[in-house]
Amino acid sequence: MASQRKKIPTILTADELLNKAFHRAVKITKTGDDRMDGKKRTAHARFNASGDIITGTLDKYVRSFPSMEKREDFMMELVHLLVDMDRLKKSLGAINWASHTVKDMTSDFIRKSKNSQKQDQLERIRKEYYGRVSSVIHQVQDDLKHISFARDQLKRLPTIETDVPTVVIAGYPNVGKSQLVDRISTAKPKIASYPFTTKGITIGHFKEGWRTFQVVDTPGLLDRDFESRNDIEKQAILALKYLADLIVFVIDPSETSGYKMEQQMSLLESVKQNFSGIKIIEVENKIDLTRTDSDRMKMSALTGEGVDEVMKAINAELLQSKKGLVESQPLTKG
After folding, report:
1. What is the pTM of this model?
2. Is residue 66 in a domain?
C-alpha cells in the first residue's frame, strides 16, 4: 500500500491533458505519395498520437490507485477516513470510460479520414475529432480534480510498515514517551506527517536477533480521553487496533508532566476499553524523581534505568504476537 501510494502520478487537469496531447501531436508531419496522401497520413498520425497520450495517461491514473476494497487493516482504515471512497470509485470509473471512449473515437476518426477525398473535408474531420475528444475530457474534469485531491490525501499518510510487529506508545504528553522511543530505537526515529494530529507521529525500529520491530508514538491521538474526541479522531484511534500488536502505556507518577495520576488512570482505562484484546504493558517512568510501590514495571527513560527490563518485556510480547509468530525470514526495513 505505501509503495503504491508513492507511484500515483501527478494528475493533470482536463485542459492540461488536452494541451499535452494536442501540442505533441501537432508537431508530427508525414509524407505520402502525393499532397493529399501526405495530409491523410499526417492526420492519422496526429489522431493516433493524441489519442495514445490521452488514453495512456488516463489508464495510468486508474491503475496507479491502490485497490479501494475495504479491508480490515490500518492503512485502509485511514484511507477511508480521508477519502470519500464511493466518490473516488465513481471518478475512477468515469475516467476509465473517457479512456475507452477516446480510444474508440480515435479509431473511428482514422477510418473517416481515410475515406476523405478533399482537403477541406479532412480539415472538418480533424476539427470534429479534436472537438469531440475535448468534450469527452471536459466531461470528466471534475473527476480528474477529485482523484487529484484523493492523491494528495493518500500521500499525506505516513509510511508505516503494517506487516512488522509493532508496539504503540500511549500516555499523556510529557510523561516520557518520546524519550523512550529515542532510547530503544536502533536509529534516530523519523517524524512523519499525520492527517489527524497537529504533531507528527514518531516511528522507530529496534531489533531482537534478526527480527526488526516497529515502535510508534502518536502524539495527539492516544494522549487524551477517547470520549473527548471528534468523530474523525475516534475513527483514527480505532484504526490503530489494526496496527498495534502491543501497547506500552507510560505513566508519570511524579506528575511533573502536569497531569495528575487520576487523569492518567482515566486515560489508561479509556485505552483498555477501546483496545480490548491487545496486550498493554503499564510502565511507570521518571523513577529518578518518584518511585512507587506498585506492581507496574518501572524505568527512567532519562537515565536508562529499568529500560532494558521494559525492552525484554516488549520483545517477549511482540515475538508472541501474530506477526511475530508467522515470521520465517528476517525482516528488514522497507
Report:
1. 0.67
2. yes
Per-residue pLDDT tens digits for 112-141:
988 888 889 999 999 999 999 999 999 999
Cell triple for 140: 470528466
Q: Which three cell numbers stand for residue 48?
A: 493516433
> At which of 156, 174, 194 does a domain end?
156
**Same-domain check for residues 172 and 274:** yes
Q: Is residue 332 part of a domain?
A: no
φ, ψ for residue 191, nearest 5 deg:
-105, 120
CA neighbours closer than 13 Å in the CB half-sphere of residue 180: 32
Backbone angles phi, psi at 11, to 5 degrees: -90, 120
Of 126, 156, 186, at which residue does a domain stop? 156
Q: Which residue's entry shows cell 484484546?
A: 277
Number of domains present in the structure of the chain: 2
Residues 301 and 176: beta-carbon distance below 8 Å? yes
Alpha helices in 197-260 (DSSP H): 231-239
Q: What is the mean pLDDT of the chain?
A: 86
Angle at 154 between CA 3 and CA 66, to 5 degrees: 55
Domain-embedded: residue 253: yes
Question: In a 3-state reduction of DSSP, which class is residue 134?
Answer: helix
Helix 14-25 and helix 119-139, axial crossing angle in degrees, nearest 10? 150
CA–CA gap between residue 332 and residue 62 (Å, rounded): 31
Q: Is there a single domain that holds both residue 178 and residue 209? A: yes
3-state secondary structure of 248: strand
Range with lowest mean pLDDT among 80-84, 177-181, 246-250: 80-84
Give the other-Cβ count within 10 Å of 211's Cβ.
18
Instruction: Using the structure block, give the residue that is written with the C-alpha cell 474531420.
Output: 125
Task: Identify any residues that bridge with 108 across adjacent strands, giving them in sequence order.
Answer: none
> Alpha carbon 297 to chain centroid distance?
35
How much helix, strand and coil, in percent to the nearest 5, is found in the chain? 55, 10, 35
- pLDDT at position 334, please? 35
DSSP symbol at 214: E
Q: What's the angle, vertex CA 217, arms to CA 323 and CA 289, rounded to 5?
A: 120
Q: What is the rounded CA–CA span in Å between residue 201 and residue 221? A: 9
Give the SS3 label for residue 195. Answer: coil
